[in-house]
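[Help] Beginner question about ligand-bound structures

Sorry if this is basic. My supervisor gave me a protein sequence and a SMILES string for adenosine-5'-triphosphate and asked me to "get the holo structure". I don't really know what that means in practice or what format the answer should be in. Inputs are pasted below exactly as I got them.
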Amino acid sequence: MSRTERPAADAPAPVAAGVLSLRGIRRAFGDHVVLRGIDLDVAPHEVVALVGASGSGKSTLLRTVNLLEPIDDGVILLGGADVSDPRVDADRVRARIGVVFQHYNLFPHLSVLDNVTLASRLVHRVPRADAERRGLELLASIGLADFARSFPDRLSGGQQQRAAIVRAIATEPELLLLDEVTSALDPELVGEVLALVRSLAEGGTTIIMATHEMAFAREVADRVVFLDAGRIIEDAPAREFFEAPRHARTREFLARFRGV
Ligand SMILES: Nc1ncnc2c1ncn2[C@@H]1O[C@H](COP(=O)(O)OP(=O)(O)OP(=O)(O)O)[C@@H](O)[C@H]1O
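Answer (accepted):
No worries, everyone starts somewhere. Holo just means with the ligand present. The predicted complex, written as structure tokens, is below.
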């Protein structure tokens, strides 16, 4: 299912424009300042894990990237273009970003295949036959081809979440945002969803994933960004983040995840 192979580990840093750059992102709900000036750059093929305590602002940050949450201040560059400009068509920006939330939001009244192909057909105007061919390939790649014509309620939670993930990549987005995609699953279903995320990461998909799965972040992410009360406290290569965190707040946070 990979679109682009990830460059070899020793390849030079990509010279292409970053996929995403955030500068000074600020968001408050009334007096509650949730994002306090976030700067973040994501390069092509990078997998960034966004970690932090509950309420630290991870979901809000992902929602701002997808323009689902307005910002009070700052700039969002997607592929080098300022998409935080109020004159920008938010739907067109969203069409370039795949998003999967904690609760798999498949449309219950559409077949699994229609769910997977909907955005391609309606937003990207891909002919139905082509969209369905691609959708079936994607469903086959996650072992769900036999459920293509079923409604989502025939699937387990893990199967639904995997279908939601392939739906998000069916349009070949520039960036995939995953917001705690395993948090609502029974523990025995978590592994199958993480395996799919791992294969996308290995295939070169650019991903930002908010997660509480520290072992997974350590294994799959290139970088880990630690958000604490709306600020990025640490932003480091995954190995360095877990083995030699620089900040006391990071160490405190990681101490809660024994065995990582
Ligand atoms: N629409 C809203 N109105 C008011 N407060 C909000 C709104 N959305 C988020 N918040 C607040 O913003 C803070 C950050 O929430 P957010 O969901 O971004 O945190 P999080 O790090 O993703 O947490 P979790 O790990 O529990 O999902 C929380 O205090 C939350 O109550």
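A couple of things worth pointing out: The pocket of adenosine-5'-triphosphate is lined by residues 29, 34, 52, 54-60, 180, 210 (CB under 6 Å). Residues 70 and 86 are 10 Å apart (CA to CA). Feel free to follow up in the thread.
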